[in-house]
Design goal:
The complex is a heterodimer of chains A (110) and B (113). Chain A is mostly beta strands and 110 residues long. Chain A has strands spanning 4-7, 10-14, 19-25, 32-37, 43-49, 55-58, 61-66, 71-76, 85-92, 98-100, 104-109. In chain A, the strands form 2 sheets. In chain A, strands 2, 4, 5, 9, 10 and 11 form a 6-stranded mixed sheet that branches. A 5-stranded antiparallel sheet of chain A has the order 1-3-8-7-6, with no helix packed on it. Chain B is an all-beta fold and 113 residues long. Chain B has no helices and 11 strands. Classes of the chains: A mainly beta (110), B mainly beta (113). The interface between A and B is medium-sized, with 21 and 26 residues.
């Protein structure tokens, strides 16, 4: 059974700081997704990582995938308040059926 | 709007009542998925369809839950004899074999009182 674990689950940081969210998964997969979710809202797709060594960047967020280590990271650079949200990683079990991590609730303080 | 559409967005029901949710996928997407998300947790897979065929069901989908996709287009998820533990956000997503990802709808938030 595929398990996906995120670390940390809660993160409070100051604006302007850098931090990384980690996503570990238990079985082989070469597709991993990062989503953002605001309170009461649905999932907003951030990144789709499709191969080992994939790195994608959008604004202050950068995601990477190491399929050999079964690890993905979401790096936040010079955080701003607007990035406060819950971030989920999800691993494709096949046929785009996703197993999600528990989520990382990120709070960025002025 | 050509995204995944879910209806209703919110539903409050009394315990023991039946409820039905609808999902309209992106046009021509042949795969459709249902997930459930409880407060503070990540979404959990419930079931998925390829065209009108229901290919997989999670053990989370008890016999009170039934999903259909009669013509391979929209789908419905029915919960019979609702319980307070059914309170959650129900998310629908769709994809095609040509896509690298599934696209999520806005969700239906169910509250059982």
């Amino acid at each position: 059974e595929l398990k996906v674990e995120q670390n940390p689950l809660f993160l409070s940081m100051q604006e302007g700081k850098n931090y990384t969210i980690y996503c570990d998964y238990s079985t082989t997969s070469d597709r991993l997704y990062w989503y953002r979710q605001d309170p009461g809202k649905s999932l907003e797709s951030l990144f789709v990582l499709l191969s080992n060594g994939a790195v994608k960047q959008e604004g202050r967020l950068m995601a990477s995938l190491d399929t050999k280590a079964r690890l993905s990271t979401l790096h936040i650079t010079a955080a701003v308040h607007d990035l406060s949200a819950t971030y989920f990683c999800a691993v494709d079990e096949g046929a785009q059926k996703l197993v999600f991590g528990q989520g990382t609730r990120l709070t960025i303080n002025p | 709007d050509t995204g995944v559409s879910q209806d209703p967005r919110h539903k409050i029901t009394k315990r023991g009542q039946n409820v039905t949710f609808r999902c309209d996928p992106i046009s021509e997407h042949n795969r459709l998925y249902w997930y459930r998300q409880t407060l503070g947790q990540g979404p959990e897979f419930l079931t998925y369809f390829q065209n009108e065929a229901q290919l997989e069901k999670s053990r989370l989908l008890s016999d009170r839950f039934s999903a259909e996709r009669p013509k391979g287009s929209f789908s419905t998820l029915e919960i019979q004899r609702t319980e307070q533990g059914d309170s959650a956000m129900y998310l629908c997503a769709s994809s095609s074999r040509l896509n690298t990802e599934a696209f999520f709808g806005q969700g239906t938030r169910l509250t059982v009182v």
